[in-house]
Fold each of these.
Amino acid sequence: MKVADYILKITPYEGGKPIEELQRELGLKDVIKLASNENPLGPSKKVIDIICKTAELVNLYPDGNMYYLSQKLANNLGIGEKNLIFGNGSDEIIELLYKAFATNENDEILYCYPTFIEYRIIGMAFNKKIIELPLKNYAYDIDNLISHINNNTRIIFINTPNNPTGTLTTYDDILRIINKATKDTLIVIDEAYYEYAKSSSDYKELLDLYKNENVIILRTFSKVYALAGLRVGYGIASEFIVQTLNRVRPPFNVDIIAQAAAIAALDDKEHLKKTIQTNEEGKKYLYEQFNKLGLFYVSTYANFILFSTPKDAQTIYENLLKEGVIVRSMKPYGYNNFLRVTIGTQKENEIFIEKLKKVLNV
Ligand SMILES: *Cc1c(COP(=O)(O)O)cnc(C)c1O
């Protein structure tokens, strides 16, 4: 069978190594994973209870309109239900955006890089022209980004806090982008780490930007809400964008357990608070340790830290694996001297630092 060249050029997404895989490969028992920005506390007890209860209903199709989830989230956010779209993870919404809006042959996709690699992978699958501009001081370079906007620019991805660097793009800078882009350019503000960023006094709420007809804000239940394995993400946008996305959305894209779990997760404010507090404490601890070790790191607004290593980072990464610690290699991003570590529980952070010292010989 013939496969198109643009498909053959795609390197499949490589996530953080699963714990079981490392256990299997190296015969290790104790493995910690600080590679995929997951919530180290796990899902809340209330969420687990709802998941078990909902198991009895899985003979039924889920509510394709996600009535209760939409209602609860819209209420929480103070927006209309018609301004929400849900996906099988925000990953799926990114795909729907391409499907619905990047439909012309000459469309260009614009963002700074390194950032979330799915923008590239999905863009390549749609055979789009992708313009990746370098980050400046580990953050989005807005002047350069703006200078590359033209009539073919169809989607601009702004990831704030940016994965893998943890840096913010400011409200005012996003406004500059919106003002420069034409009404035919979709501006995607990916706030997968919103709840973490929000706890900082530097963060300015971006929610009202959804009132622009060509803006969508993406958030997810995968990170702070600890539901990565269930796959629920959402977009906040104008009714026009939501309606358009609904035309191309698979009817039952968020399953019945995921919908129930997401509602329960929204209700558990205590777990959210504890998660953010654990992250703040872990961040402080890891900064201190990096400082002591003389390792450069980028200050983060999320639940992960990009840090550099004195020796080849890929070797450090592989040696950490042998010690049962999974972090994220930045080699696929071209950051050869860096690793990204997810902030874990205090115990996990301590193990990570202990093993890091061991593989660095300090
Ligand atoms: C984790 C992440 C997502 C998506 O997650 P889903 O699990 O698909 O909701 C989206 N954007 C960024 C930047 C992320 O880091």
Amino acid sequence: MNHDELAHWSKRAADWVRDYHAGLRERPVRARSTPGETAAKLPAQPPEQPEPIADIFADFDAIVPDAMTHWQHPRFFAYFPANAAPASMLAEQLANAIAAQCMLWQTAPAATEIEQVMMRWLRDALGLGPHFTGTIHDSATTATLSAVLTMRERALDWAGNADGLSGQPRLRLYASDQTHSSVDKAARIAGIGQDNLVKVPTDAALAMDPAALDAAIRADLEAGFLPAGVVLCIGGTSVGASDRLDAAIAVARDHGLMAHVDAAWAGAAMICPEFRPLWQGVDRADSVVFNPHKWLGAQFDCAVQFLADPVDQVRTLGLRPDYLETLDQDEVVNFNEWTVPLGRRFRALKLWFTLRAYGLEGLRKRIRNHVAWAAELAEAIAALPDFEIVTAPALSLFTFRYRDSDEETAELLRRINDDGRIYLTQTRHQGQFVIRVQVGQFDCTRDDVMCVHQVLRDLA
Ligand SMILES: *Cc1c(COP(=O)(O)O)cnc(C)c1O
């Protein structure tokens, strides 16, 4: 395949994409494949000779779409969304075609500077204080890992980077039981250890109890441990729990600890001023992560980390071997020094396209609709016989249960997802099996959302 053929097939691909999207509502949301089914359709060995793109494309069409769960389906209400607004897809095509490795300013000046400007646009759009700067990671997991590594090094006065962790005091991290497993993973990878991630109890509102946080830190100090930082959550993955940042960050500050806020999903909603009370106090955080690739429409992957002061993170993660030295490096930002991987994709381009093509007002309107429709749907489900709303909508996420039974709720979920009109997933809340509903598909309609109510009526 050469570049002329690429141009031809790219047009074919664009038409394919249009038809795929137009036909999504006709497809079951969740894949119906069985394990091994796709692999069995592929030859065991790679071809020795080149094959025509027409054949490859035909096989793609025959094999792939039917064996995918359709994340862009307007009736996908599972997990959290991974939205790909059309404008962001276009930007990804261009970024893929330029195919730059954006590790240094010099290797990609436009990518670096558009990233800097996008970080300012997003900071202001979310109502964050002007002291924040930001960078783009592949995932919230990596952003949280970066923050945890920085907590570790700050607590050890950078001795961990130099000497390793052997012989160092035992470090401790704090997070509520509602925080995402990425915090546990960060504790593992950072060498702190999962058992040194203290899960602080939450109150009736599912927010971390600040007095319990304070008590846990004091007890650890007394026991000779070295507290390193606190990870707080806004819009937790299970049922959308949020900590009270004001109170929790005040405790962290009293003990000189860093505070990192995981708002991977809910952060996007902060473009609407009326939702900002949810993260009141965020301006005192050291680090905040949110995923534009979830609710904002910037195609996966794109996770933004805001930093009150990047110096500590750059000191933790940044390295300048001889082969990465550039002449002008004191005047520019080399974003690889802010993140775990050296290589970086040109992710800022899709933010630029997305923010411009829909405007903040267009994005706010979608999020407001989703929140309003989730509330309407929850109310309609509550009115059905044998259904109970277990956690009320947190923004656009709520959970429900059927006949107050784990078995019946799980059986209903199986039937819902075999039916295929919608896709829902489960979690456990206070020991009970519950079904989650989140509303957040970029171009879903009120009818798509109310379809959940219809499906429940049909299948219960
Ligand atoms: C989705 C999510 C994550 C993980 O995000 P990745 O970008 O997939 O690593 C972490 N925390 C919360 C609250 C999330 O919703």
